[in-house]
């Protein structure tokens, strides 16, 4: 902690990070132990964060991330999109297919950035803002594969005809990016995805992940 920083703000942000890393919430005592501060300080931090809807406490007293975080999260999409565009452009031009960055939004997959190739005669029209269930399409399935292997690398996922008749997709999850759950992929008009596309998509997902760290 330097003279230019706020100890209280630092502790509040640490509370949010700790709560974001757990699915079952944390008690005041657990937060006190993890932060190395007394319970009175934790109570004050939680009360302040609750006023801004960034934290909520259940009937058992366990603190969890509040819905106010979602409002902040909506502003993250433009930043993520900007960071991903160079890798998506390279992927689209290299493969000759529409490249996309997809993030989890609730129970759905949401395309937040799309880049179409400039040199092909035709390609799939895939637009930013397009939503689909996580269990349909390569983008969503790649995210689910990463969830199923939290400590491993699931590689890439291939699909055909799940979102659009005659279209095939390949996608790889973003790995190692705290607070961001998503995938990078391509969609093309083909009966099958060429062999080189899968590894190329994995490389692009790694580039995007590095840009976001």
From TrEMBL:
IclR-ED domain: from which residue to which, for each copy?
68-213
Among CDD domains, the record links this protein to:
HTH_ARSR (cd00090)
Keywords from the UniProt entry = DNA-binding, Transcription, Transcription regulation
Q: Is this entry keyworded Transmembrane helix?
A: no
Q: Which GO terms describe its biological process?
A: negative regulation of DNA-templated transcription
SMART domains attached here?
HTH_ICLR
Locate the HTH iclR-type domain: which residues? 6-67
In Swiss-Prot or TrEMBL terms, this protein is called IclR family transcriptional regulator
């Amino acid at each position: 902690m330097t003279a230019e920083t706020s100890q209280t703000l630092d502790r509040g942000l640490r509370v949010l990070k700790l709560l974001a890393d757990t699915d079952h919430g944390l008690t005041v005592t657990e937060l006190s132990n993890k932060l190395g501060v007394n319970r009175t300080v934790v109570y004050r931090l939680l009360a302040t964060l609750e006023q801004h809807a960034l934290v909520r406490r259940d009937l058992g007293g366990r603190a969890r991330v509040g819905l106010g975080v979602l409002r902040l999260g909506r502003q993250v999409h433009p930043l993520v999109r900007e960071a991903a565009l160079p890798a998506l452009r390279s992927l689209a031009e290299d493969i000759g297919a529409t490249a996309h960055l997809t993030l989890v939004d609730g129970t759905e997959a949401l395309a937040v950035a799309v880049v179409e190739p400039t040199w092909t005669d035709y390609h799939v029209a895939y637009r930013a803002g397009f939503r689909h269930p996580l269990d349909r399409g390569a983008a969503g399935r790649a995210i689910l594969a990463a969830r199923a292997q939290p400590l491993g690398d699931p590689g890439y996922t291939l699909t055909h005809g799940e979102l659009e008749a005659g279209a095939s997709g390949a996608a790889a999850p973003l790995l190692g990016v705290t607070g961001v759950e998503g995938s990078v992929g391509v969609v093309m008009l083909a009966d099958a995805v060429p062999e080189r596309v899968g590894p190329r998509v994995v490389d692009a997902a790694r580039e995007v992940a590095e840009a976001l760290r």
